[in-house]
Amino acid sequence: MDVVLPEEVRERVREARRVVAFSGAGVSKESGLDTFRGAGGLWEQMRPEEMATPQAFRADPAKVWQWYAWRWKTGSGAQPNPAHRALVRLEAVFPSFTLVTQNVDGLHARAGSRNLLELHGTILRAHCNRCGRSRDMGEAIAESPEEPPVCSCGGRFRPSVVWFGETLPEEVLFRASQEASSCEVFLSVGTSSTVYPAAGLIELAHQAGACLIEVNPEPTPFSGRMDLRLAAPAGEAVPALVDAMERCR
Ligand SMILES: [Zn+2]
Questions:
Q1: pLDDT tens by residue, 39-84
Q2: d(Cα 34, Cα 17) in Å, to the nearest integer?
Q3: I need a labelling partner for 182 at 20 to 30 A (CA). Which of 63, 105, 154, 174 fits?
Q4: Cβ(100)–Cβ(180) under 8 Å?
Q5: Contact status, residue 78 vs residue 33, Cβ threshold 8 Å
Q6: How remote is the CA of residue 134 from the centroid of ligand 1, in Å?
Q7: Span from the CA of 129 to the centroid of ligand 1 (angstroms)
Q8: 46 C-alpha to center of ligand 1: Å?
């Protein structure tokens, strides 16, 4: 795939100092992680809404822990795809580049993205539900695969993801909002942009007068406001788009 930037977009990209990319499930899709399912087996039948809640963890911590151990294992077998890798390159193109993601699979971090804001947390970490101590999820699972390990404070470790009914981490959301409202180019990738805060961040960038670029096979509620829209899977379109952005710098 080859991407030719319209002249207006090319100018904005050429002069941009602050750029934000915002990614959703569509980016993980080509790594085989578009849904919670994929590895086969009993756990596939579990609905996220039943497991990814504080209530479920209180009622049956072992069951929720085992489900996340399964998801962690599935995720660690997946590899970052060309879209993840291309987004890493943008950090070297602009003086300020921030990647905001809704994905919890940790693939952006594994691909090498550093200026990364994980709005919904990450499955690569666990933290104590009492004192907040943070640790590596893989190590926590290895130590205690059947039930959440007990912290030295007496609390229980849980995956560091945002569950249904929980609020997004305030500091992360604040920083994402700040970046969105001060960026000059905003790139939305693989997200349907229908739920907040996704919709809110695009709105902020739009209000700030940013050049808006969207990569998504399906149209989104914001498609009409885009300066450039690429109706293609992220794995194809993002590397081509990043090539084009690099060329005009
Ligand atoms: Zn603790």
A1: 456 677 778 788 899 999 999 999 999 999 998 998 888 999 999 9
A2: 32
A3: 105
A4: yes
A5: yes
A6: 9
A7: 7
A8: 28
Please state the pTM of the whole predicted model: 0.93
Q: DSSP assignment of the chain, as one string? A: ------HHHHHHHHH-SEEEEEE-HHHHHTTT-SSS--S-SGGGG--HHHHSSHHHHHH-HHHHHHHHHHHHHHHHHS---HHHHHHHHHHHHSSEEEEEE---S-HHHHHT--SEEETTEEEEEEEETTT--EEEHHHHHHH-SSSPPBPTTS-BEEEEEPPTTPPPPHHHHHHHHHHHHH-SEEEEES----STTHHHHHHHHHHTT-EEEEE-SS--TTGGG-SEEE-S-HHHHHHHHHHHHHHT-
Active site residues: 120
* Cα gap 208→187, rounded to integer Å: 14
> How long, in residues, is the chain?
249
- Output the CA 245–ligand 1 centroid distance in Å: 45
Amino acid 162 reads V
Q: Which residues surround ligand 1, an ion (CB under 5 A)?
A: 128, 130-131, 133, 151, 153, 155
